Amino acid sequence: MMVSKLMRPWSVVAALLLALVVVLTGCSSSSDDEGGSGDSSETKTVTTLDGPVEIPADPQRIVALRNTAEALVLLDGNVVGVPEGYTEEMFGDNTEAWARYQALPKIGKMDDPDLEKVAALEPDLILGGVPQVYWADVNQEALGQIAPVVNLDTGSVSSEWTRVFAETTDIAGLNEAGTAKKDEYEARAAEVHDKHAAKIDGTKFVAIASWTPGTVYTQPAGSFTPQKAQDAGLVFPEGELAEVSVEQLGTLAEYDAILYPVQPDGTPTPEMQAVLDSELFKSLPAVRAGRVLAVSHTRPQTYDAGLASLDSLDEQLEKMPA
Asked: Cys-Cys link to 159, which of 56, 166, 222, 229 (CB 3.0-4.6 A)?
């Protein structure tokens, strides 16, 4: 009788297998009920100027602030809200990206997000690159109660936008698309240089701009106006942004060619046009020789604006005498 009550070895194995199937089936059903097969609770730590921040490893609902919305919109990332104030110029010739930006909910000014609008979007990450001078005025504590907040270091030089772009795409899981966009831009810059190397190499360029009547700013290497042209091999003076009056334009006589910004339609701003119309500007050797480049999309800090700017530079170099 005792022997009949003992389970044979194969019976034990069968029972164990049956129990395992039940457990696995239960786990699978639980996972399906939660809406996916991945572990949405996975996190990673990002180092920021405000210290280390724990964020979702694969964020699905990102509210973008200044200097990160560009990459997320251009690459069609998981962005659910963006700041007001962007213009079509920011996206170059990428009309689809511009349409995406227009359609996305707006969360307030670039440097002053509206907390209620941000919260209403139920983000799992708030990602920005707000300069520190403005970031100090943001209610960071309240923002952090909505979702983890990462504010990237934008640096002090405008040419650092490429690093911010890379950090944004890394956090948002867009590395592959971001690298492809960067490669496209760099290939176009190399193409422009190779096509016009005889006009570019060895030429002393200077970049100027005007935002207020009666003044001119010489733009050093790495600043807004020359930064994309530099990627095509043009060399500009190092130093700091310098303001000069129209009466001091004669100091630009040492340069072989002058680059200045124009609007996307190719026209200068009224302030810049006043400089171009001045007799002192017209008397400069570079101007008399026709070695003046009117380049669009110089200010926006995105790869798509950069591609449009390189196209504009290509056209201008084509016209410039050797």
From this structure: 222
75 in any annotated domain: yes
Q: Specify the residue for token string 């609007």.
A: 263
Dihedral, CA of residue 227, residue 228, residue 233 and residue 237, to nearest 10: -20
What the block records as the tokens of 53 is: 């921040």
* Strand ranges in 171-237 using DSSP code E only, listed in sequence order: 205-209, 215-219
pLDDT at 148 (0 to 100): 96
Q: Which amino acid is at 172?
A: A
CA distance 293 to 236: 13
- Full-model pTM: 0.84
Assess contact for 297 and 306: CB atoms under 8 A: yes
Q: What percent of the chain has pLDDT over 70?
A: 87
Q: Which two tokens stand for residue 28?
A: 């699978």
> 137 and 53, same structural domain?
yes
User: Residue 139, class by beta-carbon neighbours within 10 Å (0-12 exposed, 13-18 middle, 19+ buried)?
Assistant: exposed
Residue 158: exposure state from Cβ atoms within 10 A (0-12, 13-18, ≥19): middle
The three-state secondary structure class of 222 is coil
Helices 175-195, 161-171: inter-axial angle, 10-degree rounding:
150
Whole-number pLDDT of residue 3: 34
Mean pLDDT of 138-153: 95
* CB-CB neighbours of 224 under 10 Å: 18
Give the mean pLDDT of 152-173.
89
Q: Indicate whether 228 and 169 sit together in one domain.
A: no
pLDDT band with cut points at 50, 70 and 90 for residue 157: low
Phi, psi of 207 (to 5 degrees): -110, 135
pLDDT digits (tens, 9 = 90+) for 181-190: 999 999 999 9
Q: Would you state the structure tokens that stand for residue 46, as one six-digit string?
A: 């990002």
Residue 225's domain is classified under what CATH number? Answer: 3.40.50.1980
Range of the domain at 153: 43-173
Structural domains in the chain (count): 2
Q: Do residue 168 and residue 208 come from a single domain?
A: no
Reported as a pLDDT band with limits 50, 70 and 90, residue 285 is very high
